[in-house]
Structures are given as C-alpha cells and as structure tokens.
Amino acid sequence: MRLPRAPLLLLGAVLGASLRGGGCGSPSHSLRYFYLHLPELSQKRPQFFIESYLDDQPIAHFDSLTRKMEPLVPWMEEGEEEAFLVPEWVFRADLEKLSKPGHRAGGLHTWQVVLGCELMEDGSKGGFLHYGYNGMDFISFDKETLRWVAAQPQAEKVKRKWEDDSRWSGGNKDFLEEPCIEWLQRYLSYRKEALQRIEAPMGKVTLKVVNDSLEVLICQAHGFSPREIQATWTRDGEVWEKETLQRNVAPNSDWTYYVRLGIEIDPKERDHFRCRLEHKGLQEPLVLAFKEETGNAGNVVLPLALGEKRFPSEELEMVMQ
C-alpha cells in the first residue's frame, strides 16, 4: 500500500515556493521525506506512511504495520533500513490532540509532513520541515533561527510550545544539517555506482503476422547499461532503414534499459534480415535472427475488421504497442 499523494499536493506547492524564495543557489540534489499520519481506524490499516525521494525519484517506502523501509530501487538495498526520523518523533502528542474529534468539526483528520535537505550548485546546503493539516499548510521550521512559522491561527499555540522546547527545535536542526546531508551524499554515491555499471544487452527477434504478404519482425533488447546502444536492421549485411519503426530507449526499474525495433517485410524475404546490436557491454556486435518457435508461438495474426483498411505503417505501429 503506497503513500496517498493527493493530500500532499498543496503542501508540496507550498514547499516549492518557499525553496524558490530561499535566496540560496539552485538545488542540485535533494533528499525528501513525505510523512502521512492517518486516524487510527483499525489495527489492520497502517497509521503512518513514509516515502522518501532522491531528486524526485521514489527510493523507499515505510508503513507502521511492517515497521521496515522497503527499497523501491535496487541500489537502496545497500542503505540503512531506517534512515529517517521515526514517526513518533515527527508527529508529537500535542499534534494528535489537535486532531481529536471535538477540537474542530467532526470527521477524520490527517497530518502531513515534508522534510529534507538539499545540496546546492554553489556548494551551500539547505533544509526544510513543513507540517500540513488536512491538506492545508499548518506550520514550518526555520532552522537558521530555530523559529516556527504558523500558517494557521490554530498553529499559534503549537508555535509557542515548540519554541519553548529547545531540544525539539535543536533536534530538527541537527537532523537537517548532519544525518540528512550524509544520507543524501551516500544515496547519490549508490546511484552513481549503479548508473556506471556495464551490463550487456540480451535480445531476441519475434514475428507478428499481419497478412499473407506482410509481417513485422520486432527486435527486443533489454537489460543493458549504460543507456547508449546502437540497434539497426540489416538486409544481407547492409543497414536497412526502410519501413522501420524504432522506439526510444526506456528505463527499467533496476536501472537498466530496453529498446524495441520493428520492421515491415515480405515473408519471402524473412531470412535476409538480422537485428544488429552494438553496446559498450559487448565485445563484438550481437546479431539476432528470427527463430521459429515450437508450435509457432511467436506468430500472432492481426485480423482486420470487415471492410477496414489499414496502411502498412499503421500495422507496424499497432504491433509495436
């Protein structure tokens, strides 16, 4: 069960505006944590959610039922299991009192928190901590002055209490300036190592039958890294670009990539065509040909509806979906 994002939309917009007006250099890299506290409805439903982002990419998830950080990218498996502020620290008891029925109009109330740190292009460091209540900005922390900024009248009492608690304000400042920055730098190094690894492409050629006089060969290459790859069709060893449709290289969840390359051919010419892959992970080009599978599992007939006409390029686009 993933962190519901809708209640955080307004909070995220407020955060973005505050960062743009901070007067520091442009953010180069950031580590952000989104927290959500829900009413305690049952023991079978999580009350806390945390989702962490590196440069706006989800990298880990936590909920109060499992009490474990779940990696969302392979390289995060090298990280600490609990590299975040625990929810009990973030959602203090005085906040829970505010959301009890009777304090405001009835109904279910939620608390949202966004906190994190940034490394700027000019070498400076930033940190932020914002609270939201029912999707509205509530109170935020200024780590330079150790002051709290109330966005709602109901937050004034919390502001006075928190500013009298030096341990609470100081603990948040310490987290934003030290552990958060250390984790950000560590995760950047994990990601950089993952991006720099070299994985050779694996590939195969499949066949889609359109009609008796037209079929499409599709070359599929996947599992390769880095992203750069040269994929071409050849006819009798010469590069063939006619009637070819190439998909852009796209990422997999494990930080490898895949690409598909289709070509329209006359079935009688099938044996003349090969898919040629050139990549940093290959010592020599990988040349692939279509191989008939047992039971013709690779052949898929795409029938036309009665009276329907389709141009060859449309056929190719259809089978490449």
What does this entry look like structurally?
The protein is an alpha+beta fold and 321 residues long. Helices cover 21% and strands 34% of the residues. It is built from seven helices and 17 strands. The chain has helices spanning 9-20, 87-90, 93-98, 155-163, 166-177, 179-196, 312-319, and strands spanning 27-37, 48-54, 57-63, 70-71, 111-120, 125-133, 136-142, 147-150, 202-211, 214-224, 230-235, 238-239, 244-246, 250-251, 257-265, 273-278, 286-288. The strands form three sheets. An eight-stranded antiparallel beta sheet has the order 4-3-2-1-5-6-7-8. Strands 9, 10, 13, 14 and 15 form a five-stranded antiparallel beta sheet that branches. The longest helix has 18 residues, at 179-196. It is elongated, with a radius of gyration of 27 Å. Mean pLDDT is 81; it is low at 1-11, 17-23 and 296-316.
